[in-house]
Design a protein that fits this description.
The structure is a homodimer of 430-residue chains.
Chain A: H1 8-33, H2 43-55, E1 59-66, E2 85-93, E3 102-107, E4 127-129, E5 132-134, H3 138-157, E6 160-162, E7 166-171, H4 179-186, E8 194-196, E9 204-208, E10 210-219, H5 234-256, E11 271-279, E12 288-297, H6 303-319, E13 330-332, E14 337-338, E15 341-342, H7 347-361, E16 368-371, H8 377-384, E17 388-390, E18 395-396, E19 404-406, H9 407-425, E20 427-429
Parallel strand pairs in A: 3-7, 3-8, 8-17, 9-16
Antiparallel strand pairs in A: 1-2, 2-7, 4-5, 5-19, 6-20, 9-15, 10-12, 10-13, 10-14, 11-12, 18-19
Chain lengths: 430, 430
Amino acid sequence: MSVETIAPETRAAIIAAVQDGFAGQVDFLSEFTAIRSRRHCEGEALDFMARALHARGWEVDDWTVETQNLSDEPGFVDCAGEVPSVRSVVGTLEGAGEGRSLILQGHVDVVPEGPDAMWQVPPYAPHVRDGWMYGRGAGDMKAGKVAALFAVEALRRAGYVPKGRLHYQSVVEEESSGLGALATLARGYRADCAFIPEPTGLGLVRAQVGAIWFRLKVRGRPAHVAYAGTGASAITAAMHLMGALQEMEAAWNAEAAAHPWYKGVAHPLTFNAGWIEGGDWASSLPAWCDVECRMGVLPGDDVAARKARIEAVVAEAAARHPFLCDTPPEIEWHGFQADGFVLEGAEAPEAALAVAHEAATGQVGPEDQIWTALTDTRFYGLYHGIPALCYGPTAESIHGFDERVDLGSVQRCTEVIALFIAEWCGLRAV
Amino acid sequence: MSVETIAPETRAAIIAAVQDGFAGQVDFLSEFTAIRSRRHCEGEALDFMARALHARGWEVDDWTVETQNLSDEPGFVDCAGEVPSVRSVVGTLEGAGEGRSLILQGHVDVVPEGPDAMWQVPPYAPHVRDGWMYGRGAGDMKAGKVAALFAVEALRRAGYVPKGRLHYQSVVEEESSGLGALATLARGYRADCAFIPEPTGLGLVRAQVGAIWFRLKVRGRPAHVAYAGTGASAITAAMHLMGALQEMEAAWNAEAAAHPWYKGVAHPLTFNAGWIEGGDWASSLPAWCDVECRMGVLPGDDVAARKARIEAVVAEAAARHPFLCDTPPEIEWHGFQADGFVLEGAEAPEAALAVAHEAATGQVGPEDQIWTALTDTRFYGLYHGIPALCYGPTAESIHGFDERVDLGSVQRCTEVIALFIAEWCGLRAV
């Protein structure tokens, strides 16, 4: 498939239109970033997006599906029942006809911000300083998401509508399971390409890891610390399990040295104990401790087999422990059971992206990235054969304090997306 | 000082009076145990005790002192400012004259109950089964506290009033700092003996450990787990510190093998990480982790020197750690900084207790106990030269789930306390 390269003056007009709209785009991004759209609390962000689509003339599909009704979809996870339903908002522009269709997808969920005191600025009072916008979610991935919407606006402002159909999709659960992306595919949305503007620093994600989430629930019989037997503390028992999982992490990383995509990456697979809570009193031997964990897997790894290995590591460590041997921990699979993914067979949209990237940035590119994180692209590419590009602005400290996005890169990214739509979907002057 | 042993028929009348009042005592204990008097929430329990004292004709002193105004008292701790004030309720019966005075002290605070699901019965819906009352605080130490009040009632019912002055003291903070006992001493309450009916299984606490509480606050700069450098997780950093403190625990216990009172006790000093909280998301590298810790000390140990050793252990462990070496943890001393204590020079009240114990139980005793926990006795014995006896009923699973107290032992204990008052304070028939 050849790329229909648009005329240089059209490109210049599109880039100028992005520039003209950029102050308004930053205001919109700031308003969107101010919404604390954490897991299970994404409603206001979805409302915001639905209103924005209505106001811009998109046809809006705003629906909620019971999670259990998604269970036949490839990539489904039940999150230990903790996500009873999934709401999504999809805007559609039917297009002027005869062009390739495109899904512009982005998630509205953000990860917890942690203690406000550890931020230099409040996490939900977005703030621009030295060309960066600060705020939880500004980088991951509200800036990219807003860029995609304003890219379409810029095309209109420049006097064009895309020929191919566009779906602008706002999803949840990207940070925890992918059930949002899965819900849109279950609804029947398909296109010739999917584009997800996660913060890639204007690079293209070539390969990404998968991830497995699990919660260790250590339980026992507590006592006054005066009667503490050795090894009966649920907190120290949890430490013992975490030590065994760190050994597993080292072994899996050693195996990764043979992987075609990850052999050059130092420590591609991370075990992370990201959340721990146990006990409630300094002088009571703690009888319970929960640890929420994440472990990476490589593209090509069988997730079910990796889960079995995690179970075996935990069971073996418990068997060696004086207290856990009688009271083994429960494992709850409460989120990601996600495959890794490598972008392949996407030459046509990649060529269109290369044209757009060079036109906007003046650089040949984009550069390939081998990611140690994951995105929703796997649902499109791995399970539905839809080429799925992940490309977006430059962010720092995502999932950390003082998360921020470089507004210069946001403007470039908006130009690239607009030009990509032009190349991929085609344009008709209005 | 010789013991004024009372007549056998008087004893029999007192024991009968305890029996007569016991059903009402169990009801009263049940009502008292139903109050969830956790740290910072002891008001309702103190109100309950003040009402009970008023109704029984005690003179009641119910006061609150700013904690900072206690700072000159021996044994003071500031709890990192987390206890701004201390309320106490003391009832006084002036006595018929010419007898030895007595403080009957007990704490109303209870430790957290943990998840309700781990109890067979709800922790604040006291329940009697097979002669045991179940409920948080039933054993530690509401049953003993109520026994002391009903012991005085039994004397009255038998037709006697004590010759010596009685102070019935309800205090807070026994489980965390001892500031309640300290507040009563600062108020000026003194007596010839203090008696604290903690659950000792009708034994006498001869020696008790001290304890030091401290909170480790590990802080760092977090990141998406994709960018996790080795050792940057606050949770794994906290695990590293806990490992170093467990090594310290082993060393201190090895030293304890030379202690005159504790050389025969296996593992007298317990390090306990009783409460941990860190991070908030499986896929975010945790940037903070707090651990509340308790470490025991022996009678004769210098608490300030032991605190310095804890600080050194934490500092050395931090210096060895790739992340903590630049960001050492904070240590907050948020509770106990308590000396150990050995009961010595209390021959007179011990003789009175032996008479009472034998009269009520038919056994020679009570047996000495070497405790690996602590009580408020240290304030009376160590800092004010008041002989302080700790003797009370039989409880199980204190600080654990399904905490319970043996009601048979509660009745025996009530008899012993009534007889002890008779022996110690003397009686006058009314």
